[in-house]
Amino acid sequence: MSPVNLPTTSSPADLRYGKDPLLDAWLIHFMSENHIEYSIDPTRNASPEQIRFMVHLGPDENYVPCSDEMLRSLLEKTQEPALLEAYAKVWRQVMDLIETHCSNQYDKMMILALCDHKYRQAVNAPVMIPSRLLKRLTTIFLAQSGQDDPYRERRRTLNRRARQFMDTLSMQTALNACPGFVASCGSIQDLRFELDMLEISRLLALSVWTDIWEKDQFEPGIEEVEKHMLAAGSFDDLRRVLNPNRPKSMKILYMPENAGGLMFDIRVVKVLISMGHRVILALKEGFYFDAPTVWDAEEDPVLSQSLAEARFWSGNQMTKNALLQAIKENSLLVISDGSRERLNLYKVSVTFARAWKECDLVIAKGVLNHRRLMLTRTEFTRDVLCVHQDDQGALKVQAKMKPATLRVFTEPEITAKAEAIISRMRSERAAGKTIMFYSAIVGSVPHETETAIAILTAFVKHLRSRLAGTYVINPAEHFEEGLDADDLMFMWEKVQRSGLINVWRFQTYEDIEQAFVLMGRPVPPVWAGKDATFSTGCTKEMHIALDMQRTHPEMQIIGPNPEKFFRRREYGVGKFFDSAIAAR
């Protein structure tokens, strides 16, 4: 059989389902071979809705976690030199890992042979992203050798050396030296911003100077330290995104590159906090060579001391409400990205995805993050700033701004919408009306969202015509383009916990049947037997309703028995459709 020729495709923007059957087939093959296809393994991969928290995608567009250059190599299905070199680099890393950290000769030979089989399979049929191959081979090593983190002590050493350098007279003198001129400014605020920018730029320049932590007892003179600081490139992009004239302080997601450099990153974070920003520091969940993990602070006294004022959050399923509350209460929040590989948005945790979505700016350190975020035409939902050292050793700072057309609802905007609804409820109640909230399926039946809204609209109109003196709230009437399920659940919970609801009605099958009668349509098979218990959103709302009834016992709950709701899984991540009934 002759090989299948794919249509010409040069960027992620071209990877859309429904354009070409051969491209569709290759995409499904590519996603499954890289173990990033949600429909095949939903427990280990981000859902399409979660990906859209972070990636700005058009209709039927597909996100690929690699650079455009790597994508082109994989699409060609040929052993191009750049692709072969990327695979070879992975093999060298794995070989060094096994040789250095596997003392038992029998185990070493077995692990090497097993990894060799997997490596040759990848090279002979190049479809796997090199970083995914690295993850697969390191997983084999960890599982077969019985080690969970062979670089733990090395990272402690790197942080200790960096800390020692930071305490030297050369470092302190060079970092705190006055610029030698008075910056032209219109106010003290402008001058303060210039000094903050100077300190950040100096710390970032030091954060990529690997000699500091790779060499023991590294003590360069003041002149050498100053020279290295001055070698940094332009910070125009950083200055632009940190502009003090922005209307509010920012929430910043910060991703460091490696241990050692992390000590300077923490100093950068503290400067950002002093400027009025709040920072979420995202570390790895487990072993990924020199990349710091959330567990390092438990065993590394140097790191523990540097992060003494931070709040650590260990859960990978943080809710929107919990995240926003934690950010309000803590200027520095430390989370795990949920993975132990290069940044791969299919593999990050729910907590990380929500942190990305709720932040105003993402700062990512290192060449690998630069490739993933900058060397691709993929657009992201937040402004992204990458800081890395180029091949000539110069520090580069580059920004990629979110699309101008992207509508983002901030927490204050969503809160304002909730307060407007509450104000109307209060007015109607003062006028003597009964307040009824109607919880119903909106997107829990796949591809039936428009029908669900039509059902909801028809039945609420019917209720309003029958219930004189009752103010019925229809959630579908308050939707705006750009609001996702997380935003809506956040908004409605504020409304639902206002204490103003007299009757909380949950959709029954009889309601749905009546709505189809009102619309003059028969009930389609897909809607047979459906009620509010088939909605994960309604399930969450039943929990809230029962909670509110404990403090407001006069509130009535009408609809299916609450026990029927609790078969459902917890509300998903940005989903408008339902999760499956949990297996028993």
Brief write-up:
The chain has 584 residues and is α/β, with parallel strands linked by helices.
Topology:
Layout: H1 21-33, H2 48-54, E1 55-56, H3 68-76, H4 81-101, H5 105-124, H6 130-145, H7 152-166, H8 169-176, H9 188-207, H10 211-214, H11 222-230, H12 236-241, E2 251-255, H13 261-274, E3 278-283, H14 296-299, H15 301-306, E4 311-312, H16 320-329, E5 332-336, H17 350-358, E6 361-365, H18 367-373, E7 379-380, E8 383-389, E9 395-400, H19 411-430, E10 434-439, H20 449-466, E11 470-473, H21 485-496, E12 503-506, H22 509-519, H23 536-551, E13 556-558, H24 562-565
Helix pairs in contact: 2-17, 4-5, 4-6, 5-6, 7-13, 8-11, 9-11, 9-13, 19-21, 20-22
Polypeptide structure, described:
The chain has a seven-stranded mixed β-sheet, sandwiched between helices. Strands 11-10-12-13 form a four-stranded parallel β-sheet, sandwiched between helices. Strands 1-7 form a two-stranded antiparallel sheet. The chain has helices at 21-33, 48-54, 68-76, 81-101, 105-124, 130-145, 152-166, 169-176, 188-207, 211-214, 222-230, 236-241, 261-274, 296-299, 301-306, 320-329, 350-358, 367-373, 411-430, 449-466, 485-496, 509-519, 536-551, 562-565; strands at 55-56, 251-255, 278-283, 311-312, 332-336, 361-365, 379-380, 383-389, 395-400, 434-439, 470-473, 503-506, 556-558. The longest helix is centred in the first third of the chain and has 21 residues, at 81-101. 48% of the residues lie in helices and 10% in strands. It is an alpha/beta fold and 584 residues long. It contains 24 helices and 13 strands. It starts with 20 loop residues before the first helix and ends in a 19-residue tail after the last helix.
